């Protein structure tokens, strides 16, 4: 007889493990199924985000930025350093330690909350049953009153650049280089491509980013995207837009890359090539034919606004469903579903999910962009405040970028906050909190911000919306 739970979660990434913990907190008998093994061939919880995504990439981004500062910026602070060297294997080793500590931390949280961990690959069957194939091949069936599918996503493969995880790597392989490549190619100028390209560029690689789209960061506010392109190019990333990859050939541990752009056929040779063209939902061998769960035309599991699938009692969250592939979106969906299973009426605000690119300067935004609002015919007022006018940013020698606040011209309600610059992610979160409470630009401008802080740029941008900024000249009203 199969073992029964109140809630069974497939996947222990940021959606699944959070859903499992919240369900257990609500008194539901909960189990979480995970198959991923870490570098030590032992079960590792946390999914892509923790093992080979958000966390390890931030560890490398921070290490490489510190190296860049020591090498190129300390002298401006009066600090002289004779020779700066980067031990890549030590940097990667530190990253691995952080990952291991955090995965162990989730295991500890499961234990503390009474979540049962089931090791293996979960497959949804009919009648709310899940078949789990263990790493040793043994098969066991479990059943539950409610099932949450949180299987995550995986990098998209493209035929012209088959990944071998040696010369041509995906985002996972790019986290484990043991030396800095002299010439590095990156296919895709999205979040992952820009972050990983930045890491290795700071450490001395000559980086070329090949992007098929003509527009740089099309989902980001256009003014922010233009500034980002200018800044990243200045940092040494050669970003080729409108460039379509046509083929790759590996010769003598190097890869010859062919692509076409406005100038015609192009060829470049790289020591390493990172393929970062996006991610796709991980639904292979996940759903039995008679499970009743439907996929949409793009291969995502079809769900309603509350993450319920077409089968009563079966939910899906995170990267396998519609919406941005972001860890924090998955986690909040996990909490919402767990609470709804427990009989609460929790809902999620999909309009205020912040997005961040952890380059330096950071690029972040929440709410709508200026181009979206204009296309919708919404009359708006815009306030922009540059970090070049921020005393705190000057003191930190970090004055690139600006804060931009967009408000409805009639009601003054803030509709979007977009930042490129130091601590952009943290500042945008301030905007998200304010917008969740329906703030007006005037409200933000009237608040007392401590001085000197980077967040004063938020206050000044809010004041600038209505032509009242103190520390920059205001645009004259037409």
UniProtKB/TrEMBL annotation:
Binds 1 FAD per subunit. Transmembrane segments: none annotated. Its main location: cytoplasm. The lineage of its organism: Bacteria, Pseudomonadati, Pseudomonadota, Gammaproteobacteria, Pseudomonadales. Keywords: Cytoplasm, Disulfide bond, FAD, Flavoprotein, NAD, Oxidoreductase, Redox-active center. It comes from Thiopseudomonas acetoxidans. PROSITE patterns: PYRIDINE_REDOX_1. InterPro entries: Class-I_Pyr_Nuc-Dis_Oxidored, FAD/NAD-bd_sf, FAD/NAD-binding_dom, FAD/NAD-linked_Rdtase_dimer_sf, Lipoamide_DH, Pyr_nuc-diS_OxRdtase, Pyr_nucl-diS_OxRdtase_dimer, Pyr_OxRdtase_I_AS. The keyword Ribonucleoprotein does not apply. This is Dihydrolipoyl dehydrogenase. Its cofactor is FAD. One of its GO terms (molecular function) is dihydrolipoyl dehydrogenase (NADH) activity. It comes from the Bacteria. It catalyses: N(6)-[(R)-dihydrolipoyl]-L-lysyl-[protein] + NAD(+) = N(6)-[(R)-lipoyl]-L-lysyl-[protein] + NADH + H(+). Its EC number is 1.8.1.4. Residues 5-334 form the FAD/NAD(P)-binding domain. Belongs to the class-I pyridine nucleotide-disulfide oxidoreductase family. The active site is a redox-active disulfide bond. Homodimer. NCBIfam families: lipoamide_DH. The keyword Flavoprotein applies. Gene3D superfamilies: 3.30.390.30, FAD/NAD(P)-binding domain (3.50.50.60). Residues 353-462 form the Pyridine nucleotide-disulphide oxidoreductase dimerisation domain. It is found in: Cytoplasm.
